[in-house]
Write a structure and sequence with these properties.
This protein is mainly alpha-helical. It has 17 helices and 6 strands. It is a multi-pass membrane protein.
Amino acid sequence: MEVLQWFVDLGASVMLPIIIFIFALLLGTKPKNAFYSGLTVGIGFVGLNLIIELLTTSLGPAAKSMVDHFGFDLHTIDVGWPAAAAISYGTALGSLAIPVGLGVNFLLLIVGLTKTLNVDIWNYWHCAFTGSLVFAMTNDFALGLFTIVVHVLVIFLLADLLASDIEGYFGFKRVTFPHAASAPSYFLAKPLDAVFDRIPGMNRIEASPETIQKRFGFLGDSTVIGTLLGLIIGVLAGYNVTDTLQLAIKTGAVLLLMPKMVALLMEGLNPISEAGSDLIKKRFPNRDLYIGMDSALSVGHPAVLSASLVMVPVTLVLAVMLPGNTVLPFGDLATIPFLVCLMVPVFRGNILRTVIAATIYIGVGLYIATWITPLFTDMAAAADFDMEDYTSISALVDGAVWTTGLFAGLGKLLNWYGIGIIGVLAFSGLVYVNKIRGGK
């Protein structure tokens, strides 16, 4: 267990290259190519994390200044996903999420109930998060562990369902995202897209990045949009001219640089995806295989970034306007792209539809994040997390995700029966998608 915890503590940028290297060798890739692929993916993640950190350190203080500037009182701080991941993995229960996730994945692959081979094992922390929440609520270790197992089933069901949309829109061949912070938004986007198609006027609005740029010229360019949004946020935060201009350039830089880091990630991943596909075709000619990766691969898309930056001020407005919300969006403002990225392929890049859907999604999510605040604070104490001067903490990732509300709500109301219901539904969904509907 100590060895596993040490491996987890290496972080995604070190864990993933090692895992990619090992999987590449197992898939028959030459050692030289396997090493280069793993190294390239690791470097891509480092670059991506640097860009996200740049956005976090820029937008977080601006958000707090904006709230202070207008005199709003939000006393629960959003500590961000790095803290949430550390808290989730920092408990005895949470540390079991990776071996549980690996075991469930291999079992599902063997019996043909998933097409996803997940190499993004560090992100099993999302399952550790819900398991630890249920444990904090019920003080039942076994139920917390069962919650992790069921959550793993849910993310593989989601990964199998959204794979075709990911390939169809983003162009990532044989790749899917069993990412528990991103995949749930897909479930909201699907029915909303059907609703939008039936609304007169809206069903004719084209709002893709390409359409916007064609209509507005250079003002429609995603980098320019990011710069303008940075200016607006700086003004609303009460910044002086220098700080406002610096924030504008930083947000513009994010929209320009992030796609380049994603391209680097894909450069490292493509050989692994191709090798995996070739191996499956040889060994299992009637089955397809998707490589499960971090949804970070999608956040560099112009439609994702543009919609996400619009959602930064929208999220802050929601936080101060929604009655009963206590959470101040802070640490996870820069990770809004991860919450909405899988809405984009459903809406075929339509930024207007994405923003409307994301507003509903995050609006409800703020109430979920507020509700779990006492539990999340207890989890932090159990993991010996340094809360600094904060007495109440939460996070948008994963606190504002509907699956968190589902697990915590049914776990509280129905205990084992509640989590069991989710498990039965997820397992039945996997059977339907991979057996009845067809596992190709």
